[in-house]
Amino acid sequence: MSYPSRWEIFWRTVVGRAYPRIIGTQRERSWLFFETFLPLLQVSAFVFVYRAIQAPPEFTGFVVLGGAMMAYWLNVLWSMAAQFYWEKETGNLELYIVAPTSLMAILLGMAIGGMVATTVRALAVIALGLLIFQIEVSIVSVPQLLGVFLLTLLALYGMGMLFSSLFLRYGRQASHLSNLLQEPVFLMSGFYFPVRALGFAAALGASVIPITLGLDAMRQLLFPAMMAQFRFLDVEIELGVLAVLAIVFLWLARRALSHMEELSRKDGRLTIRGQ
Amino acid sequence: MSFELAVKTEQLSRVFETKKREITALNRVDLEIPTGELFGLLGPNGAGKTTLIKILTTLLAPSGGRASVAGVDVAENPWEVRRHISMVSGGESSGYGLLTVEENLWMFTQFYGINGKTARARIRELLEIVGLADRAKTKIYHLSTGMRQKMNFVRGFLTNPEILFLDEPTLGLDVQTARTLRAFIKDWVGKGLDKTVLLTTHYMQEAEELCGRVAIIHDGRVLACDTPGNLKKRLQGEVVFRLQVTAIASPEKLLEDLRGVRRFSHEEINGGTELNLILDDEKALPPILTAIQQSRGELISLEKSSPTLEDVFISMVGRGLREGYDNEGTADGEPR
User: Fold this and answer.
1) How many pairs of residues across A and B have Cβ atoms under 8 Å apart?
2) Chain B residues touching A1 at Cβ < 8 A
């Protein structure tokens, strides 16, 4: 009997696990409305605050970009970090482990599926935001902008992959952990304002969340004139740090997964439904 | 790849440590299951069946001893073991509700690296066999429990595993669905393609109908392992009666001092009590009937029967397979 190679199993698993996430958006179109319209309301509140105090128009752009990137953070928290716990409760996790595949491939599939589905929502928020609030952008460099965006997602979803193993250890507390991280990160990563406003030390601490540097760099590349006085670090430095964060998070995610699997085989609770 | 023994365990043990105590789920289990056998593992809840399956499917590590599947040590090389196996559990709720039956099944085939064309062909074929072809495009959250379990079955067989672990696969299913699935398992093993099935169940009829050999497991130990026929021969010197009576408050008290009662089990059915009695001989029966009368119970039916696997189990363990721990019944705890 011939068996598929490890590589073939790996990439098929990535595609297989990404599928439900991508197709899920098509099946439940109401999600698109709620996940576009409601964040836009939230964004609008900040836009009107900035307008009321006669802040420069670029601040509207800062907020809309933050609102779009927020979708990724929520996706990482609720559909990556907490996901293995839900998979365990439905019995899927056992089946993933029993299959001759890699859990990294499962996580990667979840991440890619999540990115694709969330990008649709993020683009919708940006498009509507640009249209409704008449925001003007002057892109400094398209390749740099794309590079920052992709590295931010890579690092962010790498962190989500790491969290998925860690959250599994806390079982039912996973949803509390997600709640605990949700709002503070909205503040610390500067979703609605340039992160430098927090002060250098706080911004440096917040940089461990990849979206902090990603947002700062993207704002610099989209609103260069205004960001000249608000930038936290140079775009090149932020790109470098994001690349390091991506590598570190993916490496840690792999280590954490192996550790979690080993631990679960030893103590018999982590991956088995109802334990 | 060929291997003589699909499953082998040597002194296999598993201990779970909790804050308060240690629980021995498996205690020095020795088993050998040759390739091509449909092997049954019988035992009540908590006997250690599922723990054994979790170890053999690489979900749990043994605390002691060794286990190999397809000739590969489960602790040393779990990935290699996983290429040969598949698992289906009763009451599974795996998959994603938003996906259709065929999409869910396709997704699971991808975790085994099966190409799309082969996967789709197998899905069609297997859904046809279990009578679920007309539901291929149905989202799984619209499926009934029985249909969902049929889909789980298909998932287990889709990868054409050499060794299949079925953990209480017909749990909670209606009679017709359970029958369909049993026929499917029998047919799959019967094709002579060196397929091996390890089935855990607490349905005696299922074990008798399907399994070439059966191991009776209780409190983590294998008490006996043989063909159903040979196991039943162990009770040839004894007499088995099944009595249906109106509800009796405490069957244990009623039977504990009576001579000739080797073992018994009881179950509350439709407001009455069903007693399964294993007696030394027929002479032990009249005092039992008298005792029932004296405790104001009325005899509804009485049947002398050939020993079944359930009786074998009762004679070894001292209680029926479906009984809870709080109403187990032996005349004096050990065989007289």
Assistant:
1) 104
2) 1, 162
Residue position matching structure tokens 């696969």: B169
Cα–Cα distance list, A205 to A133, A155, A210 (Å): 32, 16, 11
Output the CA angle B267-B272-B278, nearest 5 degrees: 45
Residues of chain A with pLDDT under 50: none
Q: Does B57 touch chain A (CB under 8 A)?
A: yes
Protein fold of B5-232? Rossmann fold (3.40.50)
> What is the residue type of B263?
R
* Token pair in block for residue B304: 């002398």
User: Are A9 and B112 inside 8 Å of each other by CB?
Assistant: yes
| E-strand stretches of B227-322 | 239-246, 261-269, 272-279, 299-305
Beta bridge mates, B215: B41, B225
What averages of pLDDT result for each successive group of 10 residues across chain B (336 residues)? 86 89 92 95 88 94 96 94 93 88 96 95 93 94 89 92 92 82 87 87 85 93 92 80 84 80 82 85 85 85 83 79 45 27
Predicted TM-score of the model (pTM): 0.84
Q: Where are the domains of chain B?
A: 5-232, 234-327
Which CATH code fits B234-327?
Answer: 3.30.70.260
Helices A6-27 and B101-110: angle between axes, nearest 10 degrees: 150
What tokens does B316 get?
Answer: 């070894």
| B15 Cβ neighbours under 8 A, 6+ residues apart | B22, B23, B24, B25, B63, B64
What 3-state class would DSSP assign to B93? coil
Torsion of CA B212, B218, B221, B227, to 10 degrees: -20
ipTM, interface predicted TM-score of the complex: 0.88
Give the per-residue pLDDT at A54.
Answer: 92
Question: Is A16 in CB contact (< 8 Å) with chain B?
Answer: yes
Indicate the burial class of B73 (C-beta count within 10 angstroms; 0-12, 13-18, 19 or more).
middle
Cβ-Cβ contacts under 8 Å, A23 against chain B: 98-99, 103
Are the CB atoms for A271 and A261 separated by under 8 Å?
A: yes
Q: What does DSSP assign to residue B234?
A: T
Q: Contact B132/B101 with Cβ under 8 angstroms?
A: yes
Q: What is the pLDDT of residues A133-168, one digit of tens each?
A: 999 888 999 999 999 999 999 999 999 999 988 888
